[in-house]
Every structure is written in structure tokens, then in C-alpha cells.
Design brief:
By secondary structure, the chain is of the alpha/beta class. It has helices at 3-20, 37-45, 56-64, 84-87, 100-109, 135-144, 162-178, 192-197, 207-210; strands at residues 27-31, 50-53, 73-75, 93-97, 114-118, 148-153, 183-185, 202-205. Strands 7-6-5-4-3-2-1-8 form an eight-stranded parallel beta sheet.
């Protein structure tokens, strides 16, 4: 992986964020899933706000190979409750919290951890996330269990339909506002600009930074 290429792409991304942000500074979660430990090291050297991992075993093995300072690690993939124990010493922020059992397990294994409640605003059965009507209950349960609810997280529609994407992101932003949550983790490489227009405060970017995965 060529660090100069990543630095160039990151500079371009920061320009896009600066021009398009509607809710203040937008954090960059560099999605390192599918890339080696070098991607984490480069993200750290270039000042990314966080790195994102989707798979428990990959994250544990990869981060064990990273020495020294690294960015906060966000777990952004669908998560089984039985994986929380093994990830608790590695993950700093849990972005895919979508059910009570997961809230309870994180509170047990990683007390006071930061979380995002994941909302499924597209209605697609293959996506993680709770229904919008359930999100307030999960936020309340997490807070009562001592977790720090940083905001809501969502994934746009798979077909990238512009109207559906805007609707989903707008729904999640309004819900976050109603719940008094400042954070909205939404937007990836293909729907970045719509996410910014709808009030994203964190984007999750992988291939647009690191290039295609093997």
C-alpha cells in the first residue's frame, strides 16, 4: 500500500467534507477491513479520527500486529453477542448496536464504552440495525446501563437510489435530533455527499482511501 496515494486521497476527502458538511466538522472513520495492519498504521500517521473493522477475528489478529499509537477502533459490522468478550480489549467504540442483548453484553464486558445505535432506515432485511421505533428504547437502555451513546449509525440502501438514500439519512438525522444525540455516523464512498447534506458527523470510508480490496 502506497502511503503517498492514501495521503492524496485523504486530502481530497477532507476537501469534500469541508465543503459539504452541514453540522460542523465531520470525522473520518477509515475502514480497514480487508486490508492489512499497514492500513491501520497509515491511518494513524495521516491523522484519521478512527479505523473501522467489521469482523471479529480479523480485527483481533490485525490490531495485535499494530504496535504503538493507533486511532480509536470502531466496530462497524454486524455483531454477535458472543463476540463482544473477545473484542472488548480491542474495540473503543461499538457502532452496530441494534438490540437489547447486545447493549447488555457490551455494558458487561466494556463498561462505560461509547456506542452508536444502528438504525435500519431502508427496510432491507439483509441490513443490520433496529427499526426507528425501537431506537429510543435502546438509547434509554444503554444510558441506564452506563454506556455513552454517541449517536446513531445507519447504512444507505444497497441500490444507491438517490431519493431512498436521502430519505433514509434524513430520517436518521431527525431521529438523532429528537433524541438529543449529536452524532450521526452515515455515509460511505458512494453516498458521501448526500450523507453530508443530511447532517452526517462521521463518514466511514474504505476503498476511496486505500484502493480496491484484494
Amino acid at each position: 500500500m502506497d502511503e503517498a496515494d492514501v495521503a492524496r486521497r485523504l486530502a481530497q476527502l477532507r476537501d469534500v467534507l469541508a465543503a459539504g458538511a452541514t453540522r460542523g466538522p465531520v470525522a473520518i472513520c477509515a475502514v480497514t477491513k480487508g486490508f492489512g495492519a499497514d492500513a491501520v498504521r497509515i491511518a494513524a500517521r495521516l491523522g484519521c479520527d478512527a479505523v473501522g473493522e467489521n469482523y471479529a477475528q480479523e480485527a483481533i489478529a490485525k490490531l495485535a500486529a499494530v504496535e504503538g499509537v493507533r486511532p480509536p477502533v470502531h466496530f462497524i459490522g454486524r455483531l454477535q453477542s458472543n463476540k463482544v468478550k473477545s473484542l472488548a480489549g480491542v474495540v473503543d467504540v461499538w457502532q452496530s448496536v441494534d438490540r437489547e442483548a447486545l447493549v447488555d453484553e457490551i455494558a458487561k464486558r466494556a463498561p462505560s464504552a461509547g456506542i452508536y445505535v444502528q438504525v435500519n432506515a431502508t427496510g432491507e432485511s439483509d441490513k443490520g440495525g433496529c427499526d426507528t421505533t425501537v431506537a429510543p428504547q435502546l438509547v434509554r437502555r444503554a444510558t441506564e446501563n452506563g454506556l455513552a451513546v454517541l449517536g446513531l449509525m445507519t447504512v444507505g440502501p444497497t441500490d444507491l437510489d438517490l431519493a431512498r438514500t436521502r430519505s433514509a439519512f434524513g430520517t436518521v438525522r431527525r431521529l438523532a435530533d429528537d433524541l438529543g444525540l449529536p452524532g450521526c455516523s452515515m455515509g460511505m464512498s458512494d453516498d458521501l455527499r448526500i450523507a453530508l447534506e443530511e447532517g452526517s458527523t462521521m463518514v466511514r470510508i474504505g476503498t476511496a482511501l486505500f484502493g480496491p480490496r484484494a
